[in-house]
Amino acid sequence: MEIPALTESTYYILLSLYHPQHGYGIMQQTEELSGGRVHLAAGTLYGALTSLCEKGWIRPLPMESGSRKKEYQLTADGLQVLKGELARLQQLVANGESILREEGL
Amino acid sequence: MNKTKKVFKIFFVWDFEKEERWLNQMAMEGWVLEEVSFFGYTFRRCEPGEYILRLEMNPSEDYRRFVEELGAEFIGSIVNWCYFRRKAELGSFDLLSDIDSRITHLDRIGRMLALICLANLIMGVTNSLDQARFGLLNLLCAALLSYALGRIHGSKAALEQERTLHE
User: Which of B41, B62, B90 is the last residue in one of the domains?
Assistant: First the structure.
């Protein structure tokens, strides 16, 4: 299954959902992991969660009674996508390093 | 000193970013949006810079709840345009940040405008054929809406151009 490159937001959302997490948690974790560089906006995150659920890469967890916050978790398919993306990124980094190193940088 | 004030102001649909900037400027000056109605904005006194305001065209109830989960307050809505505010102390507050979601947003606005435009066009034509008085008015509305659609498409094209280089 060939999957096009993920956006930075999608990559971090999937990564954050390795452990179950609600919307606010995903935002905080993404910001923390990226050292404050990647900030997920509410609408962006909402749209991404909806389409990732449709693709079956993540799934909503059953709501516990009394809790108002919906939680999500990565699925097995989602994990495969994430691993594929990691391999792609590793190739990008390796290529960049090998070429720039020739210039003695 | 008055604790609330009502301001009448007209923004065109393609100027929603300008409207948002104006609402945030008001909040910086110590007036936070409390209520919205057609072209009418009710403000309440607040600490200058206490709130960040955001607006978005999104009819989904589920989405409103989602934004509220993130610590924001839903102020009100006018034809699917939702107004939110959040305390600035909670950190930066954005609804749409990356290019893709801004394009999706413009698509949503475009679809709504196209629908109302078509309705006005049909009413305009049938009313004109019936020699009703409002026929011309409907056609005028349709013309204005087409112009708005053009503006929205223009903004979208600019974003798509930008996306070819980065996300």
Answer: B90
